[in-house]
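Structural biology now treats backbone shape like a language. To illustrate, our science desk offers a sequence and the tokens encoding its fold:
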Amino acid sequence: MQIDEVDQRIIALLVADARASYADIGAKVSLSAPAVKRRVDRLRSAGVIRGFTAVVDPAAVGWNTEAFVELFCTGRTTPAQIAVATRRHPEVVGSYTVSGEADALVHLRAADIGHLEQALERLRAEPFVTSTRSMIVLSRLVESPTVVPAPTPG
């Protein structure tokens, strides 16, 4: 699918405020509201825009502790097995296969250190996990909901 500069601007505006009206977006990209809607519908159909969501501040709901955990797994553990297992844990924000020594990196959020410890114990109990290495987040420095690519010269 071709994504032009106007599509990229629409995506950036939706990332900044998914509740913006088509008319508001249209005014910023010099299109009518129906034209913006057609473009958004096309981007959704193509899977470029996968959905719209509310971004919740974890601290506002009491989940103040955050960590990244390296998982070390048995030799034949597949990414699919890791995905299925980590989805079972409500504290898991994301899980990723990675290069380097670890097999996967898991992002956790918890209410406090005790809750984080419980989540880690449950994660370590997965049958394929041989060991973990944890890093607790002290402060967030940069956070972006997504990256919108720069226009391709052409």
In short: The longest strand covers residues 65-73. The helical segments are 5-16, 22-29, 33-45, 79-87, 113-124.
